[in-house]
Amino acid sequence: MNTSEVIRNRHSIRKYKKGVQIPRKDIETMLEAAMFAPSACNTRPWEFVVIENEDIRKKIMEISSHTKMLQTASLAIVVCARPDLQEGKCAEFYPQDCGAAIQNLLLQAAELGYGTCWCGFYPVMERVEKLQDLLKVSSLPLAVIAVGEADEEPKTRGFFDKERVTYL
Known about the structure:
The chain has helices at 3-9, 24-35, 54-63, 94-112, 125-135, and strands spanning 46-51, 75-81, 115-120, 140-148. By secondary structure, the chain is of the alpha+beta class.
């Protein structure tokens, strides 16, 4: 599959085939793609928590009702920001930088044949703080990515809208 096909065929998946084990090499390939994302001054202000444990995934679902797909997902990848790694002219770009890392991860997962769903946590600080406590991290959990083998085929929702483009 080429890049254009992956972009156009990637969907948010909320139903997964339960019990599918994702090989460690595939997880590392997804994380490697995430870490190849551009970042302000190449600060790479991210860290990742891979959650295969079902009990921890259940606790995440208690923190946010928007993560119910974790009931059947194979795992969750929590993308955490490290604003402490950015200063000066590069300070405070971590949301954009982590967003680029997340997009790379989603596209790599799709290319490997997995479904994903990006569940935002930041900037809702109540959720962020509860997830920090659960994961025992001082970094900022920005998003939880559900990953697994899709058990649904949602319709494509994205499209090109010429009305949202200005040429100067």
